[in-house]
Amino acid sequence: MLSDERHSPRPADCSMCAIYTCPRFIALALCVATLLADPTHARKSGPPRTEPITMIVLHSTGGPTCNVKTNKPIWVSAGTMEENLRVIEAHPKLGIHYMIDRDGTLRASVPESQVAHHVLTYSGRSIAIELINDGDGRDPFPEAQLASLIHLLRDIKTRRGISRDGVKRHSDLDRAMMPCDKTQRRKVDPGAAFPFSAVLDRVFLSN
């Protein structure tokens, strides 16, 4: 889940959402190149970057939050890609660069040339990738989703010169506790079910 995300009703429609869809596994490099060359496909939110990109941050769409009515911790489930894009595109501050569905479908929002506010402190020099997943350590990440992520990570690594240490989980960077329960971390995504080391091996060690 994105930093400072609030549990709120989802908009009824997504007429303001401008996103570019990359068909599953088809010409991923061409797809990303199209987005970079023609950002009219993407939502223009976030200021232009003033820092070099040195990091990629992995998120899951599901995760813990505080119920605004009861001030008790609740778990928000993954939701669908369309639902999550509606929320993010309608939010006045939050943003992402890419989202990957369970079947491997990749969609892009904020251009890489712009800052997407997705993690405290590090947004200015990072790229945000959201994975559709509950983030609870029990929801598995399908191979199709992981394969699409690996293709995207390889592409960004090549273009931006990102090192293995530059790929982070949201939980690596935001270690604060929930305001409604000081015994629980507020950001745990993408969760214990995400095969982090194996994914990095496939990105940085495989040909």
Give start-end ranges of low-pLDDT stretches: 4-21, 23-42
The appropriate CATH architecture is 3-Layer(aba) Sandwich
Helix content: 10-25%
Can you tell me the number of structural domains? 1
Main sheet characteristics: 6 strands, mixed
Overall 3D shape: globular
| Sheet with most strands: strand arrangement | 1-6-5-7-2-8
> How many separate helices?
5
Mean pLDDT: 83
What does it look like?
The chain is of the alpha/beta class and 207 residues long. The chain has a single domain, classed as Peptidoglycan recognition protein-like (Lysozyme-like). Helix content is 25%, strand content 19%. The strands form 3 sheets. It has a 6-stranded mixed sheet with strand order 1-6-5-7-2-8. A hairpin with a 2-residue loop joins strand 9 and strand 10. Helix 3 crosses helix 5. The protein is globular.
